[in-house]
Write a structure and sequence with these properties.
By secondary structure, this protein is an all-beta fold. Helices cover about 0% and strands about 60% of the residues. It has no helices and eleven strands. It has strands at about 1-5, 10-15, 20-25, 30-40, 45-50, 55-60, 65-70, 75-80, 90-100, 105-110, 115-120. A hairpin with a 5-residue loop joins strand 5 (about 45-50) and strand 6. It is elongated and about 50 Å long.
Length: about 120
């Protein structure tokens, strides 16, 4: 069984910073892309940032220049450094990863964390 566990959310004032972490564990054979999505209240879940195993990244236009995604492949962990936070960044942030699960015969599947709340006050 594969799990993604996030940490690092919280309440911060506008202009501040937070760092999110997400670690994958369990019956992992391999991990492809890892990333972060967010869902503001009453809105859909959208991509924030994503990184492949090789290090290629893509970001939502709204966070370019402020957020940085990184990962430690040896630790099966992805990070999201969020700087110059704005009230519109307030959302539940979800970790996402494409993981090949040994218990499923190595089939590549999409996994999600439980979400972590980020609230930016003005």
């Amino acid at each position: 069984q594969v799990q993604l566990v996030e940490s690092g959310g919280g309440l911060v004032q506008a202009g501040g910073s937070l760092r999110l972490s997400c670690t994958a564990s369990g019956s992992i054979f391999s991990i492809n892309a890892m990333g972060w999505f967010r869902q503001p209240p009453g809105k859909q879940r959208d991509l924030v940032a994503r990184m492949t195993t090789g290090g290629s990244t893509n970001y939502a236009d709204s966070v370019k220049g402020r957020f940085t995604i990184s990962r430690d492949n040896a630790k099966n962990t992805v990070y999201l450094q969020m700087n110059v936070l704005k009230p519109e960044d307030t959302a539940v942030y979800y970790c996402n990863a494409d993981i090949s699960d040994l218990l499923r015969g190595g089939v590549l599947s999409d996994y999600w964390g439980q979400g972590t709340q980020v609230t930016v006050s003005s």
